[in-house]
Design a protein that fits this description.
CATH topology of chain C: Aminopeptidase
Number of strands of chain A: 11
CATH superfamily of chain C: Gcn5-related N-acetyltransferase (GNAT)
Number of domains of chain C: 1
CATH superfamily of chain A: Thiolase/Chalcone synthase
Helix content of chain C: 25-40%
Chains: A alpha/beta, B mainly beta, C alpha+beta
Number of helices of chain A: 15
Structural class of chain C: alpha+beta
Strand content of chain A: 15-25%
Number of helices of chain C: 8
Largest sheet of chain C: 8 strands, mixed
Order of helices and strands of chain A: EHEHHEHEHHHHHEEEHEHEHHHHEE
Helix content of chain A: 25-40%
Mean pLDDT of chain A: 97
Shape of chain C: globular
Order of helices and strands of chain C: HEEHHEEEHEHEEHHH
Low-confidence stretches of chain A: none
Strand order of the largest sheet of chain A: 3-2-4-7-1-8-11-10-9
Strand order of the largest sheet of chain C: 1-2-3-4-5-6-8-7
Number of strands of chain C: 8
Oligomer: heterotrimer
Shape of chain A: globular
Chain lengths: 395, 113, 229
């Protein structure tokens, strides 16, 4: 197996992109990544997208993209793996290069969700639940997260104040990120302390509230991969090495988990990634966790080993996960503020870490001297999870 | 409750619902068919306010229960806003419409207080 | 052009006495203070400036809501509608949304439109709630008739307030109205209607001094731009 490097990264601002089609967005992000790397052709393309068939009634998106951006006759595949599509596509690209079969690979993830009303978007995402034993009841992903949160709060003492703190932190960071969907700052008074917060921040899936959830967004992101030993001839960028990845699955239904507070796939995916990278959680300088709901930032930070169970929320209150803290988490704003165009998210996390590890972000959101980054892309309700450990390489 | 069939592994005894081709615990392929029995203990629940397309209610209570014979399943809880719903409570399970598609009822588990 | 008062006397509908809406202040998610108060008739030209850019925003049905609101406000300004009122929401003087409505008769209110300019802060939800509050609590009406012209409106008003469907044609085009009764209002009030009174004098003075309207590009960007929620 060859070592694999990320030599190009590109993203378009997330938000409501009414004027763009799904393939427009994927194409813009792909061109940015190609230009960033300074390459004009690739051997293969992996496209991450969950909803093209349902929301746009468009299939074979990967074929459409290579045609659109003039990458013919590159091999092209679509990877649909729910909200973990992005992580899965990057993983497949890494495997393709590591195997020695392809040298230059483009991975692009995108989703166009604002095409439909909020409750059709909610229904679309709910199609990942079990079609007989979950979906018909009206369960939603926020609903899954609500049931999880109730148990996690009871078992580990997570409080609403901790969740609110994450929402505030990630929206603060999002406001500094031009690629983030949400640029609004929020206050504890406005969403928790004031009696007016009952309207500002109503329950969404009890005990989760409106501001515990990510917005519904359009967006796309892309990266270029190549073998580490070809970096010097292909690009001027500092390479970012894919030091390790992991992926694991868990039961389709929530009801069949022996302990529903145990996100086994998160733990396993992270363990694999750390082992492969020969890295410990304590060596990570910056992390992108899948905070589709604020509770997940806490639960994932504990399951991957950054904090002991029950300590993640306290770490948030102590400011340990802020920029400048012990381990900055979701400096991009996370899904909470950058947005969560489902197919794009896993790729966007890798793009953000690439920028962080190349030390090229503006001072107000650059993690100083970051050498190692980590991401979790959480699919289903934790039934398919992809983790990465990325490291700054030598130019 | 005959409307729901669960699958008990003939080797290790793990109960599955829905069906799997092999036991999630020991990969054995033979199962004894069982139906949920007795009261349903509420393991967790949520009150969902942002419902998907297809529901016109303001909210729905949805929970996961464990029946007395070990079958676990998700279903709706028939309860008014502000009802005393809590984890660990015992509920009765009924087979009732849980949503309507093109005017036709879709049946499923409805737990009653 | 001078107004022919003789002619106006014929054209203007009679106005029934109408209780004022006592202003209130709401703390929003971003910590800012939203002052909700009744607009004065002479402020209508300023309000129209803010509504104008929405006439051309098709997204989220802003054009239909904007066009009708524009006409209704103009009707109120020129004394062509009877017993109309408009509540405005201001943050540091800046107009972030407005709602209008009418007393159909002493007992029944006819809800007209809700326009949120700042989005993602639940300004529309707060202002719609204030409109219902005015009808039921200050104008002392028994019911308000409501229709939705957008899916967001339908979701927000009909479902959140649990309104009763009726077969009464609504003034806005004759669609069957949904009805908010006093009972439904008071049942939903703790969840949906908030605000503090009296408004601190300083805040109120700031709101009354001037309705500041963002420029048209800024309004378009807030409503239909990339960052819109």
């Amino acid at each position: 197996m060859r070592d694999v490097a990320i030599i190009g990264a590109g993203m378009i601002p997330f938000g409501r992109r009414d004027q763009d089609t799904l393939v427009d967005m994927l194409a813009y992000a792909s061109l940015k990544a190609l230009d960033d790397a300074g390459v004009s052709a690739v051997d293969a393309v992996y496209v991450a997208n969950m909803g093209g068939g349902i929301l746009q009634r468009q299939t074979a998106i990967a074929s459409a993209l290579v045609d659109r951006v003039g990458l013919l006759p590159a091999a092209a595949d679509l990877v649909e793996n729910g909200p973990a599509s992005g992580g899965s596509a990057v993983k497949n690209g890494v495997l393709a290069v590591a195997s020695g079969y392809y040298d230059l690979v483009l991975v692009a993830g995108g989703e166009k969700m604002r095409e439909v009303t909020g409750w059709k978007a909610t229904d679309f995402v709910a199609t990942l639940t079990h079609p007989e034993t979950e979906y018909p009841y009206g369960i939603t992903l926020p609903g899954m997260a609500g049931m999880f949160t109730r148990l996690y709060m009871e078992k580990y003492g997570v409080t609403r104040e901790m969740l609110v703190e994450i929402a505030i932190k990630n929206q603060q960071m999002g406001a500094l990120n031009p690629y983030a969907h949400v640029e609004m700052l929020i206050t504890k008074e406005g969403i928790l302390d004031s009696p007016h917060s009952v309207v500002n921040n109503p329950p969404m899936a009890d005990p989760l509230h409106l501001y515990d959830a990510c917005p519904v967004s359009d967006g796309a992101a892309a990266v270029i991969l190549c073998p580490l030993d070809r970096v010097k001839e292909l690009t001027h960028n500092v390479p970012v090495i894919v030091a390790g990845f992991g992926q694991a699955t868990d039961t389709h239904t929530l009801a069949e988990r022996d302990d529903p507070t145990d996100l086994k796939a998160v733990t396993l995916a992270a363990q694999q990634a750390f082992e492969r990278a020969q890295t410990k959680p304590a060596e990570i300088n910056v992390a992108e966790l899948h905070d589709a709901f604020t509770i997940l930032e806490i639960a994932e930070s504990e399951h991957v080993g950054f904090f002991k169970k029950g300590e993640g929320g306290k770490a948030v209150l102590a400011g340990k996960t802020k920029l400048g803290g012990q381990l900055p988490i979701n400096v991009s704003g996370g899904l909470k503020a950058r947005g969560h165009p489902v197919g794009a998210t896993g790729v966007a996390q890798v793009v953000e870490l690439t920028w962080q590890l190349r030390h090229e972000l503006p001072k107000e959101r650059q993690v100083k001297n970051a050498r190692a980054g980590f991401s979790i892309n959480f699919g289903g309700f934790g039934n398919n999870v992809v983790a990465f450990v990325l490291k700054r390489g030598e130019k | 409750m005959k409307e729901i069939t669960a699958y008990k592994c003939k080797k290790c005894g793990r109960i599955h619902y829905p069906k799997h081709e092999r036991c999630l615990n020991c990969q054995h392929r033979e199962f004894e068919l069982v139906h949920p029995e007795g009261k349903a203990k509420l393991l967790t629940y949520t009150q969902i306010f942002n419902l998907p397309w297809g529901f016109d209610e303001r909210f729905l209570y949805i929970g996961v229960v464990e029946f007395e014979n070990g079958v676990k399943a998700m279903g709706q809880i028939a309860a008014p806003d502000g009802a005393d719903v809590h984890t660990g409570m015992l509920l009765a399970a009924e087979w009732r419409p849980v949503r309507y598609v093109s005017g036709e009822p879709v049946y499923g588990l409805k737990f009653v207080l | 052009m001078a107004v022919d008062m003789e002619l106006e006397a014929v054209l203007r509908p009679p106005e029934a006495p109408q209780a004022p809406y006592p202003p209130k202040v709401i703390t929003l998610a971003n910590g800012k203070r939203l002052v909700v108060r009744e607009a004065r008739r002479e402020e209508v030209p300023t309000l129209l400036e803010a509504v104008h850019p929405t006439l051309f925003i098709h997204k989220d049905y802003y054009d239909i809501v904007g066009a009708r609101l524009y006409a209704e406000l103009l009707g109120w300004y020129t004394h062509r509608t009877q017993n109309e009122f408009c509540l405005v929401g201001q943050i540091e003087g800046l107009l972030v949304g407005m709602v209008n409505s009418r007393m159909y008769n002493a007992k029944t209110g006819m809800s007209l439109h809700t326009l949120a300019i700042d989005r993602g802060l639940r300004v529309g939800a707060h202002l719609f709630a204030a409109k219902m509050e005015h009808h039921i609590e200050y104008l002392g009406q028994d019911e308000v008739l409501i229709v939705a012209e957008s899916p967001i409106g339908f979701r927000r008003w009909m479902i959140e307030y649990g309104l009763e469907p009726t077969d009464i044609p609504h003034e806005l085009g004759g669609a069957p109205s949904y009805r908010l009764t006093r009972e439904l209002y008071f049942k939903s009030k703790p969840r949906l209607v908030v605000g503090d009174r009296p408004v601190p004098q300083e805040l109120l003075d700031e709101a009354l001094r001037e309705i500041v309207v963002a420029d048209e590009d800024a309004i378009r960007e807030k409503i239909a731009g990339l960052k819109g929620r």
